[in-house]
Write a structure and sequence with these properties.
The protein is mostly beta strands. The chain has a single domain, classed as Porin. About 10% of the residues lie in helices and about 60% in strands. Strands 1-2-3-4-5-6-7-8-9-10-11-12-14-15-16-17 form a 16-stranded antiparallel barrel.
Amino acid sequence: MRRKSLLLIVMMIIFGSLSTNAQEKKKSLIGDYLSVGGWMNIQYDYERQLQNDNLTLEEINTFNVRRARLDIKGNINPYLEFRLQGDFAGSPKLVDGFVKVKLAKYFNIQAGQFKIPFTFENPQSPLTLEGIEYAQVISKLSGYSDISGVSTYSGGRDVGLMIYGNLFHFEREGKEIPILTYKLGVFNGNGINKKDANLGKDIAGSIEVCPGVKGLMLAASYYDGNYYLNDGIVNEKDAMRNRLTFGGKYENGKLTVRSEYVSGKTEMSNGLNAYTLNSDGLYVAAGYWFNIKCEKTGTQKIRPVARYDFFRSDVEDVNTNSTYYMVGIDWWPMQNLRLLLNYTLKDKVKNDNFGHLFQAQLSVKF
């Protein structure tokens, strides 16, 4: 009887040890490929603009939680990667939800919901952008507040399938530098969390070229597609969107200079009337990093930033034909804490006067 009891105890110890090791191994495996993080933008806006048509003064003075993101990323194996990112500011929504199948340097597949490969600035995270807002031409022609009147928030994203990769390489300082990077995708064209409302698919693609000068990148991108909305009651909108960009950027670790020209042709129809919007715009953004040593928080990073931002359209009653001049300070007092201050002078042709916008944004990463 004692032998049986002793044997049972030994078996329980062995089983428990194996179970514990399996759990630890499982946790280790999850920890190897999964990362959970997020960030928040807490923002203050003050804007003052006199409307020329009726001489009324429009003012905004408000705090808001601009973004509240939870970001889950994973590299399951060397060939499979995924990302889930949700935004809980306002109505909760899925922002990114995609899978990457990494087959080779020159050919990979990405499927799901993500930023379309159009322009330099659109794919850029708000945490690395020089200003609080994206340039006018990016907002108007790259899916943020589209000039076609698409009301669905998309943040430059859509649902679709994309192939991408690097072609040709050279070595510099022991690193392999791609000469040409390409991205080509097909998308619904209706923004995030939306099924396609027509039979066609939108096409977006970009090419980035490294000409051999360290830190310099040249690029071009193209977008062609159709947005359609019909709720069966009163709203019907059909917009053919054709856009093209050329740009370049230079980064050397301290200095960042980026510029793009974007042109677009948007053919609009609401079931009764049809018209065409020809629009284009240009921005030039720059910033320079300074490092400040601090005993308590370590090295702080701070950079003055500036941007010239121009947009125009051939339709008078659209809020276009405007030039924005932005200056600001981008300060990281800690690694996970950012304070961004922007002042923008708005010169809108239709208002025949200057508007003033002051913004402050506190960002926290976790």
